[in-house]
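Second attempt. The first submission of Alpha/beta fold hydrolase had a stray character pasted in from the spreadsheet, which I only caught after the job came back as garbage. Lesson logged: always re-copy from the clean sequence file. Corrected sequence (274 aa) follows.
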Amino acid sequence: MRVEVNGIGLEVQVSGEGAAVLLVHGYPDTHALWRHQAAALNAAGYRTIAPDLRGFGASDKPQDVDSYDLALHVGDLLGILDHFEVRQAHLVGHDWGATLAQLTAIAAPARFTSLTCLSVGHPGAVGSAGLEQREKSWYFLLFHFAGIAEEWLSRDDFANMRDWLSTHPEPDEVIDLMRDPRALTAGLAIYRKGVPPEMVLGRPDDIPPLPVPTMGVWSDGDRYLTEQSMTGTAEHVTGSWRYESLDGIGHWMPLEAPEAVNKLLLDFLSFADQ
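This time the job returned cleanly.
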């Protein structure tokens, strides 16, 4: 369904009944990333709320980069909860969605029972993970070059994007969405506004610790993130902290290993509900 939040139209998939779980996708995905988790959570008695972030999927795609300030994304997520009259929810994010979920939990800790971060840890941990992590994040700088990044990704029928997405289980679906030039540019805006070049080369500003029970999950086949960037999150949590790793799985664990992810989620959410 489509909802209007903070002056922008967002596509939101809602299903099930029970305690709410807000599922936040990353780049370059949509709410469809969570279809396996939504089914398992619904069957276990949870209500799932999975939006397409602004700039992605069927949601609005403003063309000015300032419309993708991370604070606006946080406002969207809180506004979605308000729209559906959800006072408190579990919060789950993958990739950029994990970063946005963390910032949302920091902004409104009373609204969240738990936080699950898939692939991406606290910005302070990512920034402190050393040279190996910076090398893996090389594309952050490329994505800042407006026009150049779009041409590079789409060249030769998106050959470079296919290579960059080499471990994504559904690259054709992603690329089909990015054939719309507006969608390609809007998707990159979260990098352009969310991570200035100086932050890629240094450490992020002093970001507060995570104030709710938090689980971090990393997979050893992730070509974009080191394990240290997730395990270091332990130093940035004031609530309880749980770390899990998945062997032989790439970056898109919700699609690549849905049963393993579902098992971890259901166990952690049950713990947080106690």
